[in-house]
Amino acid sequence: MEERQTIITLKNVSLSYRKIAKTVKVSVKTGENSDRKRSGRPKATTELENTFLRVNSLCDRRLTGQQLQAQLKLCGRSNQVSVSTMKRRAAGLTGRAAARKPLVPQVATLISQRFRIHFVYKLIP
Predict the structure, then answer these.
(1) Do 63 and 57 meet the contact criterion of CB atoms below 8 Å apart?
(2) Of residues 88, 82, 101, 90, the one with CA closest to residue 62
(3) Beta carbons within 8 Å of 89's beta carbon, 6+ residues apart
(4) Contact status, residue 64 vs residue 94, Cβ threshold 8 Å
(5) Is the separation of the CB atoms in 53 and 45 below 8 Å?
(6) CA 71, CA 69: separation in Å to the nearest integer?
(7) How far is Cα 35 from Cα 11, in angstroms, rounded to an integer?
(8) What's the rounded Cα separation, in Å, for the pair 56 and 92?
């Protein structure tokens, strides 16, 4: 309680937070200058499962979020993870599908081949 009162008094004197921290020696109590562990909702997947999802997504780039979810469930995952979580875990590795190619009939292909052959024969002396 004394420490709190000291901090309030120093703040009322209009000292900066940095000088107050040096005066009270806040960093000595925690032993470091990083944040303390905070409470919060735990992650839905572990780091190992995240790695599994990334590797599977890289192996087969056509996998969708639902397919990744099914693969994770097959590996022994007891509780289900949402599809949106799967997509976030494999961020940047979204499923791809092959582009649709124009449908070229075989007749047109044969005509163009013959045209090219005749063109080449004209160039050869």
Answers:
(1) yes
(2) 90
(3) 45, 49, 50, 53, 54
(4) no
(5) yes
(6) 5
(7) 22
(8) 13
- Entry pTM: 0.46
Question: What is the rounded distance in angstroms from the CA atom of residue 117 to the CA atom of residue 119?
Answer: 5
For the stretch 48-94, pLDDT in tens is: 888 888 888 888 877 888 888 888 888 877 788 888 888 787 766 66
Q: What is the pLDDT of residue 17?
A: 83
Q: Which residue bears the tokens 């960093």?
A: 27
Which residues, in sequence order, are CB contacts of 92 under 8 Å at separation 6+? none
The answer to whether residues 89 and 50 touch, using CB atoms and an 8 Å cutoff, is yes
What's the angle, vertex CA 41, arms to CA 35 and CA 42, rounded to 5? 90
d(CA 39, CA 37): 7
The ranges assigned to domains in the chain are: 1-32, 47-89
Between 31-45, 67-81, 110-124, the lowest mean confidence (pLDDT) is in 31-45
3-state secondary structure of 101: coil
In this model, does residue 31 exceed pLDDT 70? Answer: no
